[in-house]
Amino acid sequence: MAETPRLKPEQAEQARQPGGLSIAVTATGDIRMLTLAGEIDHHTGETLQQALDITGTTRPRIVIDMRQVAFMDSSGINILITAHQHITQAGGWLRLAEPTPSVRRVLQLVGIDQLIDCRDTLRHALTLTP
In sequence order, what E strands does 8-87 have? Predict the structure, then answer.
């Protein structure tokens, strides 16, 4: 069952502009998948925070498809760490799928790849095995 994207009109406009971020939200079984495209920075971070909100969700399982993320700064790192903490405390998990080479390098430099499960393929990220 697929959810409809949760972009507000102003977010959709922002995603079309250079430096914007678009997020498509779908579901595969009980896994929520966020497909990101664009840049994650202090201008677009709130959009990602809203998409990662787990209020009222039991044992959330979230995969973030990062194949189309061109850039991520420290704002994105902080959002991912906070989301990971909230999701883990709720008994769930967060996985990152196929980060681009530049984003993967940022994740490795700050050690996020040791904290948050980073998978090489989207298919592998969607498997229920740890």
Answer: 21-28, 31-40, 61-72
CB under 8 Å to 28, separation ≥6 — which residues? Answer: 126
Q: Write out the two tokens for 39.
A: 């840049």
Query: How many other CB atoms are found less than 10 A from the CB of residue 46?
Result: 13
Helix, strand, coil percent values for the chain (each to nearest 5): 40, 30, 35
Name the nearest CA neighbour of 113 among 73, 84, 70, 71: 84
Q: What digits encode the pLDDT tens for the residues 23-81?
A: 999 998 899 999 999 999 999 999 999 999 999 999 999 999 999 999 999 999 999 99
Looking up tokens 């902080």, which residue turns up? 78
Cα separations in angstroms, 23 against 47, 80, 114: 8, 15, 25
